[in-house]
Amino acid sequence: MVSAANEDQPVNFINRQNPNHPSGSTASSPLSNISWPKYTLDGKKMFLFSDNATEEHTTIPDTYRAEAIAAINEVQIALGN
How many domains does the chain have? Predict the structure, then answer.
């Protein structure tokens, strides 16, 4: 469940496909100071929340599901879809 303090990120993402606050926004939450990267096919980075209070949240390459996605794509090509 999303806490009330963090509700603005999902709302921003749904409305603007960007969880960051709009420029000039005075909104504040525990995640306001984080710059969320835009997901691109060239960059393929995802945001990783740390569950350790002393570690920074960071981005990591989105490769953990590459093999499964490749398999799905091969099936689609084989079926002519």
Answer: 1
